[in-house]
Amino acid sequence: MFLANYLGLLHQSELDLAEGYRKVADGHASDADVYHVCHTLAKQCDAHAEKLKPFVDRYGEQRSEEPERLYYELFDETRSGSFGLLRDLQDLYVMANFCDITWTMIGQAAQGARDRELLETVNSLEGQTLTQIKWLKTRMKQAAPQTLLVASS
Amino acid sequence: MRNWDNVEHVEELVELWNVERMKIPHWAPPTHAMQIWRYAEQGSISLLWISCTNPAVSLPELPRIREILEKEDLFVVVQNIFLTETARYADVVLPAATWGEKLGTFTNADRTVHLSEKAVEPPGEAKSDLEIFLDYARRMDFRDRDGEPLIKWDDPESCFEAWKECSRGRPCDYTGLSYDKLRGGSGVQWPCNDEHPDGTERLYAEGDFNTRTDYCETYGRDLLTGAESTEMEHRALSPDGRAFLKALDYAPPHEEPRDEYPFRYTTGRTVYHFHTRTKTARAPQLQNAAPDAWVEIHPSDAERLDVGEGDVVRVESPRGRLEAKARISGIKEGVVFVPFHYGYFDQPDGADGHLRAANELTITEWDPASKQPLYKVGAVRVTKIADSSGTPAPAPTTTASAPVSGSFDGPAPAPTTGGGSAEVTETMETQTEGREQEEEKGLIDRVKDTLIGREDSD
Asked: In terms of residue numbers, what domain contains B290?
């Protein structure tokens, strides 16, 4: 069944998002809050992937190349400077939303399959992905005026 | 006191100040200190006006702060009562008046508002902060949306009256206060208004909190990341005066002790000093109680390092280092403590000489929700560099820095006392007409004695 595809998609997306957070953290280490929060969120995504594994095994993961293509498109190189930070956070925002909607699809399938364990996992972990998205938005909103109107590098 | 994300709250300010709404920045919470310094570091802020604080001693990672202050493209204005470590980096120094030299209110952490009277003229060209800001506003010709001067008050009391109007109906309501009331013999706790004319001793006594969506000061933030909640999210919870109890799973500090830096580093205060000692170092009783920096260390750790009371140790983190005498104390094993008060203004070499500021070592990181720098956690190594030469650490023998008995080869550290000149008797009565002038003269003389040589010291 195609649930296996979506589980594969989500598992890989979380791992790729984790890598994205780490890349942005290290690329913008001088922005101390970005560095520390992104590393924290990378660990969160790794934990998500870890918690998905039993379900991946149960349903049989169908690995998809899609999120990897997205990852390499977005995170090949982190950019530099304050404008670069804004654009990098925006790419994380895209990737995090990709994860979020994939979680929603898994949740729908879990309900249809009456898989209580999978549904509980979705409910507890999707909230964290939503908070990640909230943080990215908060941080971008905070940075935007200074970056877009004043910064020259 | 108002919610930047609440359009109605911003509209209240529009009416109070008579300015265009877009003139009031409200696209995000006010930029916090560490972010301001980051923008200065990157060059998108090119003027920094630092008033009434001393970042060259009090911010984390002081080598970085010095680098930023030294930038060619950063114009630094420092406004303070003495030439502090930060003021030495200023392009322009605005000398400010201190306590006793200006009229105005203080509000402390338990919400008590006190009125502080002016007793003497400030020395030289020093002016009160209020006068400096009013002068600036006049020269900049700030106008409201009708073309009238933006600032419509010109002295402490009229400023206070304007502030009262700003606070009307908000949680910190000052509308019931006045200079007359504050001269009545005691401070008063806000909120003080028609409902609470004598002020308020306890908040939330009825279990009613300021969480109604239209009233609250913030829609809240996530403790892990600082992510801001939206009005819709807040309203959906229908808090209706109930309190939010926020929780977070434990996560260890990002910089943990490890091989190269095996001690946990924490910084803090001693009761004898405030902040970077701009005032307290100049009060002899306080400076004598705690004249210089020290490093608190547990007896077993000290023994392993061959460190005794008063021996000089070097403490190093990835950011920087300091050297100070060791105090063997009751601190937790594996942890060292350094007070953050000690900068360089009273050292002959300045910051180029012997380093003793605790923040040379602290990390540029801050709590995501409160934006408070993480002064309390870090990892360091400690090495002995010199013997005590017969004197203990200059740490007070009272409070947490108390020495562990039997830890010193020489005579035990003398007990810390203020002595006769530190003792005070206070009587508080409301003024009666006959005594007023006599008391006032006595007060002015006593204040003059306390303000030692303002013209003489830097």
From this structure: 263-401
Work out how many CB contacts closer than 8 A connect A with B: 70
**Does any domain span residue B74?**
yes
In order of their start, the domains of chain A are 3-150 (1.20.1260.10)
The number of distinct structural domains making up chain B is 2
Distance from CA of A35 to the nearest CA of B (A): 9
Confirm if A10 and A95 have CB atoms less than 8 A apart: no
Q: Which of A131, A146, A151 lies at the smallest CB-CB distance from B222?
A: A131
Q: What is the DSSP letter of B344?
A: S
What is the pTM for the complete model shown? 0.91
How far B227 CA sits from the closest chain A CA (Å)? Answer: 4
Give the domain-ending residue among B117, B146, B168: B168
Give the containing element (helix H, strand E) for B116. Answer: strand B112-116
Q: Does A29 touch chain B (CB under 8 A)?
A: no
Which residues on A lie below 8 Å from B27 (Cβ)? Answer: 141, 144-145
Three-state DSSP state, A87 = helix
User: Does residue A13 have a pLDDT over 50?
Assistant: yes
Same domain as B160, residue B15: yes
Q: Which residue of B has its CA nearest to A32?
A: B365
Could you tell me if B285 and B159 lie in one domain?
no
CA distances from B48 to A56, B28, B64 (A): 55, 20, 16
For the residues A37-56, what does the mean pLDDT come to? 96
Q: Chain A: nearest CA to B332, how far in angstroms? A: 27
ipTM for this prediction: 0.92
Q: Rounded CA gap, B328 and B406, in Å? A: 10
Residue B203 has pLDDT above 70, yes or no: yes
B31: closest chain A residue by CA: A142
- As a whole number, mean pLDDT of residues B279-283 equals 95
